[in-house]
Amino acid sequence: MKYGLIDKVKKFERTKRWIKSILVNQEESVNTMLDVIKSDGQNKLPTSRTPNLEEWKRVYTNMGWKYVEDRQVCICPTSHSFKEPISKYTKMFDDIDKKSFHQTSHYDEVVGNYETYTYCQQQVRQTQLILERLNSDYFNDQLLDYDHINHDEALCFLLGINVNLPNTLTLKNEKLLSVFDYESDPYDVSINGLLFHSKEHQLLTRKFGTSTIDTKEFIDWAIGKNYIKLIHARPTHAKTISKNNNLAKVKKALVEYLPKVDGHTNTYNLSTNQDFHRILGNKELSVEESGMNANEINSKKGDSITPTTLGDYIKEILKSNWWKSNPETSKIRKKIRKPIKNKSKK
């Protein structure tokens, strides 16, 4: 049985608007911190990196500020805390708007401003990555086929967005979306913060309260909450069923065979490899003699294919989401070389 999200498109667009609003706020934070950095040293410090202590001292002392060694602080000559006579500095600052700079500049504050600016830039990039991969159809139709799902997958499903986001989106090996483990911070402008406060997250947490959720329990609960409904799909054609069964057998054979391969292989070698054929045979899928078209097989059974058809199956599998994103294939993807495209001479 297949289940689908009610008002899927509407919920997808709603969640997308939420995330875009977060992006606007994050971009405003970046611009604000950039203005703060530019104000340091009257726009004379770099904006692409954190200046070192000597660069910072040189800029401020050239402006006539006094540097206090033990505190790593520069004090403006017009500041009341500056104890030396200020008359000789007055003219220097006559044409400067006193509101455009602080009268005291600490180097550690300058470093902190740069760190905050970099963090804000990182948040913008994370949100942009999520928006790029928000597609509501990616992997969602397979989610409820598993015995268990995790909290963040269930949340993404209910919000109408790509349920594989928590597993595929990474930046410096950190998950960009991990709402179940998120600790609420009212001042944090992030995707986690946004989704943490969603009604769907709150309901999931109160109902299940665990990172792993039994799929059947989730389905029963979601139907009761009018989130999902049973989809009555058209009957699948017998040939399609046969092909899908064969594809499933080839997938299992790849998972079993590829870890044993020394070095690399390719689609052609797999389609003609006898050891691989034997594994397929054990899974009740026999490979006929080379050169015979699948349509010419007398038996026309769903458990018999030709090497050519096997090669086509493998190519289709290598393009699938199962191959590209499933944790089960993460260690064997590198075993198969991609075909080298011939470059035509102009």
Description of the molecule:
This protein has 346 residues and is mainly alpha-helical. The chain has three domains: 2-23 and 133-231, no CATH class; 29-130, no CATH class; 238-335, no CATH class. The protein has helices at residues 8-39, 53-62, 87-90, 107-132, 140-143, 151-159, 165-168, 191-196, 199-207, 215-224, 238-257, 267-272, 274-282, 307-318, 321-325, and strands at residues 2-5, 66-68, 73-75, 104-106, 148-150, 170-171, 174-175, 212-214, 228-231, 286-287, 304-305. Strands 2-3-4 form a three-stranded antiparallel β-sheet. A hairpin with a 4-residue loop joins strand 2 and strand 3. The longest helix is centred in the N-terminal third of the chain and has 32 residues, at 8-39. The radius of gyration is 31 Å and the shape is elongated. The chain starts with a strand and ends in a 21-residue tail after the last helix. The model is unreliable at 84-99, 297-302 and 342-346 (pLDDT under 50).
